Amino acid sequence: MSQIYEAIRSFWLPEQASTTAHVIDAPFMFILIASTIMLIGVTFYLFYLPWKYRRRSSADVPYPVKENHLLEMSWIVIPTILVFIVFFWGFKAHVDTVVAPADAYEVNVQGKKWLWQFNYNEGITTTNELVVPANRPVKLIMNSVDVLHSFYVPEFRIKHDVLPNRYSTVWFEAVRADTFQILCTEYCGTGHSVMGAKVIALGAQEWNEWVASGGGKGIQPGDSPVELGEALYTKNVCNTCHSIDGSSKVGPSFLGHWGETRNFVDGGSAVMDEDYTRESILYPAAHIVEDYQPVMPSYQGQLSDGEVYALIQYIKSINGADVPATFAEGGFGGDGDAGGADAADDAAADAPAAE
Amino acid sequence: MTSVDHKRIGIMYLVAISTFFALGGILALLVRTELAMLGDTIMDADTYNRVFTMHGVVMVFLFIVPSIPASLGNIIMPIQLGAKDVAFPKLNLMSFYLYVAGAFLAILSLRTGGVDTGWTFYTPYSAETGTAVIAMGMGVFVAGFASILTGINFIVTIHKMRAPGLTWNRMPLFCWGLYATSIVQVLATPVIGITMLLLVLERTLGIGIFDPALGGDPVLFQHFFWFYSHPAVYIMILPAFGVISELVTTFSRQKVYGYTAIALSSVAIALLGFLVWGHHMFTSGQSIVSSIVFSMITFLIGIPSGIKIFNWIATMYRGSVWLVTPMLYAISFLFLFTIGGLTGIMVGALAVDIHLHDTYFVVAHFHYVMMGGTVIAMLGGLFYWWPKFTGKLYHEGMGVASAVLVFIGFNMTFFIQFVMGSQGMPRRYADYPDLPWLEPLHQFSTIGSYVLGLGLLLVLFNGIWSLFKGKPAPGNPWGGASLEWTHTTSPPDPHNFSRTPLVTHGPYDYYTVFNGAGDGAMGDGMGDGANRPAPVPVITEGAPQEFDKQIDLGTRQA
Ligand code: HEM
Ligand SMILES: [Cu+2]
Fold first, then answer.
1. How far is it between the farthest Cα atoms of chain B?
2. Burial label, A6 (beta-carbon count in 10 A; 0-12, 13-18, 19+)
3. Can you state the angle between helices B259-272 and B288-316, rounded to 10 degrees?
4. Exposure string (b/e) for B373-389, b if CB count within 10 Å is 16 or more?
5. Does the beta carbon of B359 lie under 8 angstroms from any beta carbon of chain A?
6. Parallel, antiparallel, or unpaired for β A129-133 and A158-162?
7. Alpha carbons B125 and A190: distance in angstroms, whole number
């Protein structure tokens, strides 16, 4: 019996990976089973009645039917009772799961077109990877820097809209150390369907190590900037807007413009060099290239100097320019903080005024 | 094109609406085709967003809101009431042209790049996106007036133009459905009008009602929007209830079971429908208390719809069920709408909706209601009244084939979407790189949509075939008992009736009508097999019948 129940549940619903998932699945399953029984009943009569009372000749005269009050009462009262059970259950399950425990670990979440950024109290910032301790309640305090988004983790059965003008919260407790999918479920434009991210739930030990290391291992002098840049290109979702094959997406391609003069909508222009590229990453609104919209988010505070440097080297390498093999060679001693310690800086506050 | 005859206006609407249905359908197939495979296959994300938005806008504002009332309602309702025309024939024509103007504006937005906001136009996205939201907003605004005027026209017609003897409780349920719809149209449509106007002002003048940077509130837009759009789903479904009531009774040759319950619950649904808009916003951050209240009222409204389904099914009991095309559509409606309703209970349950909101589960749910409900009912109604307003019979074989194809195609397309949704597939996704294992399910759905498309093409073909090759239709091919069948020819003459009919019985009193006896004659002997009244005369395909002769010869009296 319970095996059949489990089979039905896993056909319809993803795995239960949070402590509250089963509370929400219970009414789902109740409605599903009650509905299936009801539907089978209805379907039976939809076949049986037209067959039993099919027209045998154009001269058929049907028997008049008197209304049967008992029958009517039964089909009014039974569904009403069922519906109230469902209402009550749905409401109770919601109230029981919506409030975060007081001791929850808090993470700040920002939705931006089209990425998720997570700010931890330890001064760590990550993009599209929400690293949390497993088996411990985590509360997310979320807002958006642009349009509406919605934070959804199917395995946890949690979802909440992320709004530009106020904070919303959602919480979960992952039942084991694993990786789970985050999806955006409020339509937000071009990159809506690629605004996915991961929850990475770590065991207690790994979690402590992760926090202690400042959220990563940091850049070593011997690392290759191009390799790091390539990883950052997808990790920070530059790829949703910038191609590396020359095709123009929401933003210009990384291929083919290095060293060129770029014309801006405000009439100015600049050569695409290291300085210009750095400015574009940190203060994207300062200059807008002709034919594009000012939609790129600022990466100020999210990327360390070393990471920005790595991205620039990566873009150069795509265009065939000479690039150093290691950070040391390029004059970078490694900044030891891939997470960006200045995460708290307000990106907009110190952006240079547009000329 | 300048005729004020309600039947002609209805047919003009029918043509326009069908055109938009076809357009919306083609867009839907493009959407499904893109989703059949991971990655960009036939279009990029921006194009996809414009295509699904246009699909939604066209289907909702240009097709389904006007669909049944403006076409079948316009053609049939005045005849069912025994009236010569609607109360304000010129206003009726004006609504049609407003509708066309609104549609034109909406289509115009394509020239400036199309709209990529989804049919819900949520701010702040819609206030800042670079596309043609203004033209689209104005299109919806103008088309809204058409809807309001039609509503007013119908309400006045029903109050003032009923033939002598056609009391409220002798009014066909189709008219009751339209009556309830019209109330909602008149009360709710101004709200979407204002909302669209505010959106346009927000974009052009930056008045800051919705923009948080100017102290506005983007969620306010959602309240405004759903304050219209939830009642609007009743604008879409109530006329369908009306059509189904007519089909089930005629083809079972049995009085509608629970006439009063069906008639009054439509009005109750129309009014309660104004109090549930917040169930679209359970995850938006509205207070928990409001969520609970909205969830509760949502369930209250569900109950009458369920009862109606039982009533329709019970109507077949001990009837004489004639399985021709319209009845097949009616039965498929009963099945599909039941699924739509039951999954509505699912998304109405607060905790469960948190998981399901904005996923394909919702997409499947509203297609079961809107397409499985309204569109299927409309198709059934079209086949049913087709002989009446065109004077031609359609091809029965093709009709049955279309009903079967549509039924299979529809379920293939949308049933699987429930599973995808509850497994976590969000809606409005141009691609699903994070959920690649859903690809086969999407493919199945896409194949289903082609089958569905084929079924719908067959309907179109049947119509065209019938206009050229169809046999002439008798006045009452189905043995219906309401005025459009018993008192007019097919097609009805320009003034519908040569003299105003005097109504002495209810719309489904098959006994009375076909025995020529007055009220009361059906009293005894009912339910008593030995003492059955004389058989109903009618109904072999195409054969002119007793009544038609009488109507043709002018000898039939009311
Ligand atoms: C051939 C039949 C149809 C197919 C295959 C189809 C398919 C689709 C698909 C795939 C979507 C996109 C879902 C998403 O990503 O959010 C969609 C959205 C939608 N459809 Fe349909 N559809 C069909 C008919 C209809 C009909 C008849 C109506 C209403 C009268 C309708 C109303 C809508 C609406 C309102 C949306 C939402 C648009 C939005 O999200 O902005 N569809 N449809
Ligand atoms: Cu989003």
1. 80
2. exposed
3. 160
4. bbbbbbbbbbbbbbbbb
5. yes
6. unpaired
7. 11
Chain B residues inside the 8 Å CB shell of A158:
354
* Contact at CB, A190 and B49, closer than 8 angstroms: yes
Which two tokens mark B421?
């949704």
Q: What is the DSSP letter of B168?
A: G
| Residues within a 6 A CB radius of ligand 1 | B 25, 28, 31-32, 52-53, 55-56, 59-60, 63-64, 118-120, 363, 367, 370-371, 375, 413, 427-429, 449, 452-453
| Count of CB atoms situated within 10 Å of the CB of B50 | 21
Round to whole Å and give the CA distance between A194 and B432.
7
Asked if the C-beta of B444 comes within 8 angstroms of chain A's C-beta atoms, the answer is no
d(CA A83, CA A77): 10
Q: Which of B44, B331, B540 sits opposite A50 (nearest CB)?
A: B331
Q: Rounded to a whole number, what is the distance in Å from the CA of B133 to chain A's nearest CA?
A: 14
Cross-chain Cβ contact B307/A150 below 8 Å: no
A284 CB-side CA count, 13 A:
13
Cβ B303–A79 below 8 Å, yes or no?
yes
- The whole-angstrom separation of Cα B280 and Cα B498 is 50
List Cα–Cα distances, B402 to A32, A204, B101, B415, B460, in angstroms: 30, 61, 33, 19, 10
CB contact under 8 A, A49 and B317: yes
Residue A42 pairs in a beta bridge with none
Q: Interface pTM (ipTM) of the complex?
A: 0.87
How far is residue A333's CA from residue A222's CA, in Å, rounded to a whole number?
9
The rounded distance, in Å, linking the Cα atoms of A164 and A137 is 25
- Quick one: closest CA in B to A142, which residue? B285
Tell me the best of B363, B376, B429, B438 to mutate to test the pocket of ligand 1, counting ligand atoms within 8 Å of each CB and taking the most: B363
Residue B274 is given by DSSP the state G
Q: Kindly report the number of other CB atoms within 10 A of residue A204's CB atom.
A: 12
Per-residue confidence in pLDDT tens, chain B, 558 aa: 678 899 999 999 999 999 999 999 999 999 999 999 998 889 988 899 999 999 999 999 999 999 999 999 999 999 999 898 999 999 999 999 999 999 998 888 887 777 888 888 887 788 777 667 888 888 889 999 999 999 999 999 999 989 888 889 889 999 999 999 999 999 988 888 888 888 888 888 877 788 777 777 878 888 888 888 888 888 899 999 999 999 999 999 888 988 888 888 888 888 888 888 888 888 777 788 888 888 888 888 888 888 899 999 999 998 889 999 999 999 999 999 999 999 999 999 999 999 999 999 999 999 999 999 999 999 999 999 999 999 999 999 999 999 999 999 999 999 999 999 999 999 999 999 999 999 999 999 999 999 999 999 999 999 999 999 998 888 888 888 888 888 888 888 888 887 778 887 788 887 766 654 333 333 333 333 333 333 333 333 333 344 444 444 545 444
Nearest to B125 among A38, A55, A189 (CB): A189
Interchain contact, A93 vs B351, CB within 8 Å: yes
Flag if B527 and A63 touch (Cβ within 8 Å). yes
Lookup: tokens for A145? 């820097």
Taking the C-alpha atoms of residue B533 and residue B546, their distance in angstroms, rounded to an integer, is: 17
Chain A residues close to B317, C-beta within 8 Å: 49, 53, 65
Q: Which residue of B252, B285, B348 is in closest CB contact with A163?
A: B285
Unique residue bearing structure tokens 């790049």? B113
Selected for mutation to probe chain B from A187, A234, A243 (highest B CB count within 10 Å) is: A187
Taking alpha carbons only, the member of A48, A50, A49, A30 closest to residue A38 is A30
Residue at B48: amino acid letter: Y
- For ligand 2, a single-atom ion, the residues with CB < 5 A are A 149, 184, 188, 195
What SS3 state is found at B539?
A: coil
